[in-house]
Amino acid sequence: MPADPAADMAGAVIAITGGTGSFGATMVERLLSRDARAVHVLSRDEAKQDAMRRRFADDRLKLFLGDVRDPRSVGEAVSGTDYVFHAAALKQVPSCEFFPQQAVSTNVLGSRNVIEAAAAAGVRSVVCLSTDKAVYPINAMGMSKALMEKTAQAFARNNPGSATVVSVTRYGNVMYSRGSVIPLFVDQLRAGRPLTITEPTMTRFMMTLTESVELVEHAFVHAEPGDLFVRKASACTVEVLARALAKLLGYGEPEIKVLGPRHGEKLHETLLSREEMVRVSDQGDYFRVPLDTRSLDYEVYFDQGAPEAAVVEDYSSDNAERMDVEQAMALLATIPEIRSMTERIPL
Ligand SMILES: O=c1ccn([C@@H]2O[C@H](COP(=O)(O)OP(=O)(O)O[C@H]3O[C@H](CO)[C@H](O)[C@H](O)[C@H]3O)[C@@H](O)[C@H]2O)c(=O)[nH]1
User: What is the ipTM of this complex?
Assistant: First the structure.
């Protein structure tokens, strides 16, 4: 695989499923600026596609209306591409909780469609985007993403001769993503309302959109079949996040209203389980977990086990590097939407 994503994107044709979302739009911009030959975007929303067409006004951007649930539309979008970034997903925890079968259709079966279509089209590399909620999952969104990961890994295990490298990346919370807590807090501050906090001690890994795009590029450059990558990230409590944001935007000490956790929410998230941490390799800003290539040989499985797993800890938002208010302010200040809100933010 190439050592430099920019070099390899030049002249390449790339498909992005779910390509009209925040990740997709950021990735499209990067790919076009790196002289991609074409970028195929597969998504369901024609209005967002139209907005994207106007925004980029670039003939190299090809928009495919369709759904990962529909193998034919996936086949058309990945045909003739070199790389696929699979970002299409149902990712809201509450909606998946109430409609779990919809999460299975998109996140599990849709992912299988993407991987199979990519392999059939001779695509060189498919990177599937997952989430920390897939580790020890307690909600339907996380469970369906865990099965997506298994689907990707099973493809790599069962097709050792395939020309298509399938890998997985896992994110923490992407800051300022649509529908997430930071834009909600901003709205509440502006409206003079109290900040609604579910549980003050709840922690989350915090990543910027740029970091999440870089993680996918890292996977694309370094992946062996079935690899899983995470980016090392800092975590903080929601109370710290709320206080940091209020201070940064000049609101001082905010009024806080505690709501209690929502359906399917964990107190802390885990980016890598202790079973994965046993096998992890440290790649600087990233961790790589190689595919577990053991076969269905129960005797070996039983005899060998993984005794080290008992002494290694999960990589969780509870035991990761924890930001205080000042550190959270510094990270928040790197987000373009927040920077544009006040000139008083230090760069
Ligand atoms: O009014 C609110 C809403 C949320 N929170 C808290 O803020 C944190 C972040 O909440 P978000 O809704 O922003 O994010 P989630 O952790 O629920 O999940 C998000 O991050 C995931 C990755 O872990 C997925 O990307 C998912 O799609 C996305 O919604 C949580 O501890 C949540 O309890 C509050 O305190 N008050």
Answer: 0.94
